[in-house]
Amino acid sequence: MMMMNGSSKVMARRLVKQLSPRLFSTTSTILTVINEPATTINVGCGGLFESRTGGSMAEWMRMPGGVGVGVRYASTLALNKDDKVVKKQTTNGDAEKIETTETAIASYWGVGPSKITKEDGTEWKWHCFRPWETYQADTSIDLKKHHAPTTFLDKIAYWTVKSLRFPTDLFFQKRYGCRAMMLETVAAVPGMVGGMLLHCKSLRRFEHSGGWIKALLEEAENERMHLMTFMEVSNPRWYERALVITVQGVFFNAYFLAYMVSPKFAHRVVGYLEEEAIHSYTEFLKELDKGNIENVPAPAIAMDYWRLPPGSTLRDVVTVVRADEAHHRDVNHFASDIHYQGRELKEAPAPIGYH
């Protein structure tokens, strides 16, 4: 037993001697690229026991046989805004450092953002949407289409929406920029709720959705992009932000329950909400034409998202947003009609990309 203890101590000393330069060193962290044994990337982070805001520690070690094993000491690797990526190349024992000014966020998992450029070669600046998600709005759509309420549920849906218009007009009055912002925080909820419930239904029943999950989530994302656009031209006050939180919380839960009970009623409500949105944006355009609201240049995010021509203004943005709302009106009234026919949405192909 004593011989075993002595042998264990000797082995422990040798193990510590071999690993101590790696585990207890205060030098910079090194990431070894497995495919290129002679190349390492030196990331500007502190050593294992160095305290530094925004830094993290990780090291890749090459084991015998060319197998790479990752050892994680702390959080995933992330650089500060001012950190530089430093490449270190080793040749015949001589180290040569090549510094670059490119900032990056290194990932422990090897997941990095792809670099996308526009057609003219300039870098794509938006992370919330990609070039293949952009489009040119169809502004020729009929804005005056209206679904006349005939059934009892339709009338409830219609007058529910009409009753909500009065407090909205009273609160925002002619402040159409903030009104649009408030409208979009609500309009982006139904598509997400409907898509989520259809998604769960598809999983429970092991069946396809006919594309309606994607269509409804596409609607929600489009409405959210409306909000991101109007945030560039309006500055909501603190009580308006508080109102958004309250209204969104109430509306989300109310719409969730309504969709669970009657999808045809829920989609009809959204159809009438979109009709009201068309009316609101039409009034917005009238105020712009009268000069009561300054027709400022279109925000850069709107220029890229709707592929607007150079020199576009806020009026052009409101015009394409109104066209989007008209398309959402058609989709939701169509979905409600499918349910009124006693069928499920999956039985009719979803109008993906309709907006």
Automatic annotation (TrEMBL):
GO terms for molecular function: alternative oxidase activity; metal ion binding; superoxide-generating NADPH oxidase activity; ubiquinol:oxygen oxidoreductase activity. Binds 2 iron ions per subunit. Its main location: mitochondrion. Its cofactor is Fe cation. Gene3D superfamilies: Alternative oxidase. Keywords: Electron transport, Iron, Membrane, Metal-binding, Mitochondrion, Mitochondrion inner membrane, Oxidoreductase, Respiratory chain, Transit peptide, Transmembrane, Transmembrane helix, Transport. One of its GO terms (cellular component) is respiratory chain complex. It catalyses: 2 a ubiquinol + O2 = 2 a ubiquinone + 2 H2O. It is a multi-pass membrane protein. Its EC number is 1.10.3.11. Belongs to the alternative oxidase family. This is Ubiquinol oxidase. It comes from Aquilegia coerulea (Rocky mountain columbine).
